[in-house]
Write a structure and sequence with these properties.
single chain; two-stranded antiparallel ribbon
Length: 207
Amino acid sequence: MTVTNSFTRQPTKIDYASPTQFKFGIIKLPKVEFFVTSVNLPGISMDAINQSTPLKDIPKPGTKLNYEDLTMTFIVDEDLQNYQEIHGWLVGLGFPKDHSQFKNLMDASADRFPTSSGSVSNEIGKVKYGAQGDGGSYSDATLTLLTNKNNAVTEVRFSDVFPVSLSGLVYDQQATDVNYLTAQVSFKYSLYEFAAKGASTTSVTTT
């Protein structure tokens, strides 16, 4: 029989997490960062696999994680500059008019995104050493969690973020009060990890 000392299993911090104590930054959207009003910490899930037996099948852990979308809400500035930042990113990824729109996205990312390869030729066969990277299509994002005294304590780091949807804006002359326009954007990403504020490596905590 295993005896566990309950006194050694007590939490060292008993402060509750506040939904208002956070900062969110994304490298490719400097004009959006100041206006962010809400952002979610996405959930994760894993599909179980069943091991067949002559009796009841035995569930076993799967091998792949599924991440929910990263969703952010922000107040739109009156010149729509922050809205246009995300709109332009989506247009560059989807290039609805011509391929130069994607090239422009890559060029604009060259000075702001460390792994961007810069300009991409729109002529087939012009790349000297194989296909160029698409790093300019993505960005990194960080959700910084704050204590109740507004001290940064934990970072949630998202890798290879890119937008997949941007909500529309509704202008209404019949509005009875001024409710400033907000927009919501959903992102896909590779994964996210936890790290202490300023740490160079991420951490995994288990009991």
